[in-house]
Amino acid sequence: MQRALDLALALTQTRDEATLRDWLLETIQRVWQPQGVLLGMLDVSGRQLTCYGRVLDAPVSLQLAVDDFSHPLAYVLHKNQVRTWDSLYGGARIEHHDFRQMLCRVGTACGLHALPLSAENGKPLAVLALLDSSERLFALHHSGEGVRLGHVFCCQLMLLRQLAITQREQTALRDSLRQIKDEDVHRRDREKQVEATLIGQSAATKALHTQIYQAAHHRLSVLILGETGVGKDVVARLLHQCSERADKPYVAINCAAIPENLVESELFGYEKGAFSGAQSNKVGLVAQANGGTLFLDEVGDMSPLMQAKLLRVLETHRFRPLGAGKESHSDFRLIAATHQPLEQRVAEGTFRQDLYHRLCQCLMQIAPLRERPDDISLLSEHFIGRISLQQQKRVGPLHRALLRQLVGYDFPGNVRELRNLLEIACAHTPEGETVTLAALPQEVRDRMAGSAEETKTHFQEIHDLRVATQQYEAAVIKARMSQFHGNRLLVAESLNIPKCQKLEVN
């Protein structure tokens, strides 16, 4: 009874297949003390036996092929029968070199008792082999203890494997849930970052937020269109910061600012001695963007030479530095921006059509500030807060009269002009006071008043409000259709109207 309890206690302490294997070998060695014991475990493929054990107290480790009948364990496995040989040289086929070397230690009088170990469904798991005199082996065989011990081993082995499968599934589930949680946190952080950077509550701004979230998930080239000052560079940087490349380089190139004679050296770099004055190697902007984002600002003002140089790089991501003997590769995500009407430039022949199509795999149009007056109040509040911190001066809020003037102004310079006006107004506003219209220079006030007067004059010419409303709606829709290149879904989203509503354009 005590021996059985000791065996059971040791069995319950096995936590993996290696410790279970050691338990079986140690139990056999302690209880039966054979001259040798060998346990061959089938691998996952079922084609290989990995054998462990001891022969005359010397450790043994073998790799045996299941279909190699030069050793007797293959016979036992394929027949799925217990087999006892009273002599290792009297019937057992032993031609396997390593197996023979192992048996040389015990001598020719030693016998071999081998039994297959299988799961309850009959699937073979291992082979157990004992080396000893024929009398002891036959006695062990007839007692049935070896078969029962093997059955205990197989049951525990299947239990450990099932537990391992369950643990892997639980780990995979935890990892999946953690990934979902991390993605959700990342998504919320990204949305907060976009909303805090790209200020606005208008339908056009919200639609732009959605476009940024979507474009951040793919690697298509993005072309950002919009008037000067609308914040194209802000959108480009947000796309980079919200993408999987956020921790990689963000390289911005002002295409209009690079002199034509320096295009190749600036973009692709050069090696020492490539030309007179090249005293050392220089890494080009394309190489610097490797792994990150390459932003081509003012791409519509690109010279014909630069267009030609860039086209192949954008298609192949390969380039050759000046003086280099071989090409290099740069893995960058391309974002471009322009205030120019590129389709018109293509039609005029001043911008390459193949380059245009390469740039606009994903198109983003930023609406001018005059088309999203709902954003002016939030933008003003944001800029005043930043200006106060920069100037270490507490001013604000914005006076209602000034806000009305700003909402009625057409802002040809867009958001950049609004920020500039507020910087001037804050600079001329005393500490702790409200920012008023009087803080702006007279020239600015006159310009804003002139814009409001034009609007007032236009209103005075209206004689039928219903017709005027219809004409205005048609004009707005026509402008948006042009802005979004006929995409009615984007037009509807930008105007906050139902997608199913018919868009009338005269």
From TrEMBL:
CDD domains in the cross-refs: AAA
Top-level taxon of origin: Bacteria
Swiss-Prot/TrEMBL keywords: ATP-binding, DNA-binding, Nucleotide-binding, Transcription, Transcription regulation
Lineage summary: Bacteria, Pseudomonadati, Pseudomonadota, Gammaproteobacteria, Enterobacterales
Name the record gives this protein: Sigma-54 dependent transcriptional regulator
Ranges of residues in domain Sigma-54 factor interaction: 198-427
Pfam families: AAA_lid_14, Sigma54_activat
Natural source organism: Symbiopectobacterium purcellii
